[in-house]
Write a structure and sequence with these properties.
By secondary structure, the chain is mainly alpha-helical. It contains 2 helices and no strands. Helix 1 packs across helix 2.
């Protein structure tokens, strides 16, 4: 009986450790989700900044009147 009790106690300890590990993994997952959302927002800001810069360069190169007519023509 002692051997069986020892095995059960070991299993309980292992299960408790797994519970702690799962809790830590869930917390890490939440932190990573928040970080990825922040990175996505930054990438969108960079994308719109580059698109705006490209439009300014095109407008300066071919003229503002012609650039506006091309944007709204097509």
């Amino acid at each position: 009986m002692s051997d069986l009790e020892n095995r059960v106690v070991k299993l309980e300890v292992i299960t408790d450790n797994h519970d702690v590990d799962i809790k830590e993994l869930r917390e890490t997952s939440i932190d990573m989700k928040t970080t990825l959302h922040s990175i996505e927002k930054n990438l969108n800001q960079i994308k719109y900044l580059v698109m705006g810069g490209a439009l300014v360069i095109v407008a300066q190169t071919i003229g503002l009147d012609h650039a506006i007519s091309l944007l709204f023509k097509g």
